[in-house]
């Protein structure tokens, strides 16, 4: 069985207490170190006492890390073997794992792009020495020194997000998800080999109590989790939350209906329905019942995969018992709804109890039904009528896409305070390097600091 250590300031760190991590079939797959709180506190103190890489050097080091990530053997695996192992461990389709790894390496090679976009135009670029800054203006500086990341396991792509913290001079503590410790281990190993000192970047798998301690000892934290995690940290200004996405699509009466169906299907199936930007709710202005039926017919054509290594897989793989719980959770909440496509659990071949959940489409009578935002980790779409006089039901969405030619409607949507991204006639899963995922991380990590120097 594969043994994965922590990565501390002095190198790999093996612990007496370890966690057995199962693969997508429920069979034991690897042993993961579990770092105690006292050790983590010592590591963070070491990180805090180290100096960051010079800004001028960081970009080249991270570009080199992309090459190492792609070409070197880590844990005995080349990149292709790593991607197969990650897919088998997490149940994420291997094609999705490959896409996420490409996102990680693309970010490494252009890590300054997002911070540059986030920097206020009135601030001198990070790394500008005081003599080179305007004599009266502002400098862009960190709000702290140590940045903690509690990562999610639903997608390897989450590890592209925290890399800019290194570029901004933060020392970083990564607490990996037990579902996917492979991606952060490969990434951080590549960064170390490329020249990021181990005193600036550590991987600390640990229990929940120690995870809380990491947040308390750090200056800033990025935390992924469900609604319980959001409720726990919602009032913490030093914690950036990445909770449920509850992403929604509006299909207006003026829009091409077939194109709207295509957007809904694409968004529902994005990353096997597990991503926070996958479409959860669809609001239809004209004939939502007919739309739900047509979407159900389209998603009914999606075939169960042979397994996570199936290159054509569009659905997640997971243990049969977990799949049964997910399907039951959807069906148990549909008493006052119309099920156009019921989720089914399909047992897959191979060892263990590997299974998948097929897509679901449920029509709700009212968009005020809380199920419109009920997110599950497989393709499940809740369809409801859309009323332009009740825009508030669109709030609390990571992504809101409006399929319409009415730019006034899109403009109105941009005023919703709890919507992070507004798109017109794009799938909710659409991404672009210049469009922030949930605001720019640099907004959270940095601040404008007034600066005046030279003669009066």
From TrEMBL:
Enzyme Commission code: 1.2.1.3
Recorded superkingdom: Bacteria
Similarity comment: family membership: Belongs to the aldehyde dehydrogenase family.
Occurrences of domain Aldehyde dehydrogenase (ranges): 158-388
Gene Ontology MF term list: aldehyde dehydrogenase (NAD+) activity
Organism: Streptomyces formicae
Gene3D superfamilies (alphabetical): Aldehyde Dehydrogenase, Chain A, domain 1 (3.40.605.10), Aldehyde Dehydrogenase, Chain A, domain 2 (3.40.309.10)
Uppermost EC category: oxidoreductase
Keywords: NAD, Oxidoreductase
Protein name: Aldehyde dehydrogenase
Region annotation (Disordered) ranges: 1-27
